[in-house]
Amino acid sequence: MNNAIEIKKDTYWIGVNDRRTHIFENYWPLPKGVAYNSYVIVDEKVALIDTVERSHMDNYLDNLKEILQGRKVDYLIINHMEPDHSGSIKNLRYLYPDLTIVGNSKTFTMLQNLYGPSNNLLEVKEGSSLSLGKRSLNFYMTPMLHWPETMVTYMPKDNTLFSGDIFGAFGTLDGGIFDDQVDLDYLEEEISRYYSNIVGKYGVPAQSALKKLGGLTLEMICSTHGPIWRSHISKIIDKYDKWSKYETEEGVVIAFSSMYGHTEQMADAIGRALSAEGIKKIRIHDTSKTHPSYIINDIFRYKGVILGSPAYNGGIFPTMETLLCELECMGVKNHVLGYFGNKMWGGGAIPRFKAFAEKIKWEVVSEPNEVMGAMKPTDLEQCKAIAKAMVEKLK
Ligand SMILES: Cc1cc2nc3c(=O)[nH]c(=O)nc-3n(C[C@H](O)[C@H](O)[C@H](O)COP(=O)(O)O)c2cc1C
Ligand SMILES: [Fe+2]
Ligand SMILES: [Fe+2]
């Protein structure tokens, strides 16, 4: 069955839905799946823009052949080399041996390293243009969004931007493919999680890209994941602008680890105290149960972060360590921090939290609170003090 959809005259979406993969990049959860979008423009020349992940190649190539009705692909434009989009290149080269592969110098190094030597390479640079006949394609470099070679392709005739992963989302395309055909409320967390998890580290490159793309007239943005943007273009651009400036809302994420519930007791006490101080957006996560993907996503949203861990073999609990490493690596900015611990004899989480605060440069709102086992009345007061200090910073 042909799943291709004409999105502009002679321009087709030929994406595939992946509902089977549990984790993206073998790490990020996919509760609602993910779509890999590819596009083909049928002009005097045929240009294919990005491909799909290897596991879905068969259907994809069948769809492509059906659209082309015996014609060949002349150009394969590679906006991004990550294998979820470059996975079908090897087979495309066998199918269309005369294919010209279009990318930048960094693309070609990666192409060689992943799929071996290629003939017929056409190198493009910032502002280069390629004519397909009635249409032309212009290329703009968007380095580190989210790989060094990433670029975008703009088709001025139809004011259409093929943006690679930029403006992408987790979640399959269940019927509709345009932003006005899908349930954006249902996909909201998948859109923000895609940003925070995959693009979140690259706020500065995202700001540069937004400035660069701001000069283009945009009627349609075709990303490699998630819906095609045409009715809510300014909405998704505004979101990217806000996220990449690390703008946050009033609210607090409490992430804790706990083996026997004593550290969790402290988290709950802090949560209650925050609520008593008038904070409504409070998200409490257990790091052993909730994947960092969701915790990080909430942290991108809310300014306040309070972390707690029991002592574990002299140091911090492993799942909290994972969360701290992720946050440090992403260099998430513009937050205020409180932290607490629980222990029985010595060592513990507090020194690691202190090192984390220094590395990530978040302002610490108060002295840490460390409890021995179950909370006593004075410990409760200290938990309340962390909450109060946090609220003073937020209000
Ligand atoms: C495997 C394991 C290792 C621990 N290591 C330490 C430690 O190095 N230092 C310490 O003071 N307490 C240590 N403890 C004790 C716990 O940190 C302490 O009981 C704490 O109250 C547990 O909090 P929880 O109830 O939130 O799990 C350890 C406990 C376990 C089960
Ligand atoms: Fe990617
Ligand atoms: Fe991707």
Give a structural overview.
- With 395 residues, this protein is an alpha/beta fold.
- The chain has two domains: 5-244, Metallo-beta-lactamase, Chain A (4-Layer Sandwich); 249-394, 3-Layer(aba) Sandwich (Rossmann fold).
- Helices cover 35% and strands 24% of the residues.
- It has twelve helices and 22 strands.
- It has helices at residues 57-68, 83-86, 89-95, 105-115, 184-199, 203-213, 233-244, 262-276, 292-301, 318-330, 350-360, 377-394, and strands at residues 5-8, 11-13, 16-18, 23-24, 28-29, 34-36, 39-42, 46-49, 75-77, 100-103, 121-123, 129-131, 136-141, 151-155, 160-164, 220-223, 249-256, 282-286, 302-310, 336-343, 363-364, 369-372.
- The strands form five sheets. It has a seven-stranded mixed sheet.
- Helix 5 (184-199) packs across helix 9.
- It is elongated.
- It starts with a strand and ends with a helix.
- 45% of the residues are buried.
- Bound molecules: flavin mononucleotide (FMN) and fe (ii) ion (2 copies).
- Flavin mononucleotide is lined by residues 258-264, 310-314, 342-348, 373.
What small molecules does the structure contain?
Answer: flavin mononucleotide, fe (ii) ion
Backbone structural class: alpha/beta
Shape, per Cα inertia axes: elongated
CATH superfamily of the largest domain: Ribonuclease Z/Hydroxyacylglutathione hydrolase-like
Strand order of the largest sheet: 1-2-7-8-9-10-11
Number of strands: 22
Number of helices: 12
Task: Please give the largest β-sheet.
Answer: 7 strands, mixed
| Second CATH tier, the architecture of the largest domain | 4-Layer Sandwich
Q: What is the C-level CATH assignment of the largest domain?
A: Alpha Beta
Low-confidence stretches: none
Query: The CATH topology of the largest domain, please?
Result: Metallo-beta-lactamase, Chain A
Estimate nothing, just give the exact number of structural domains.
Answer: 2
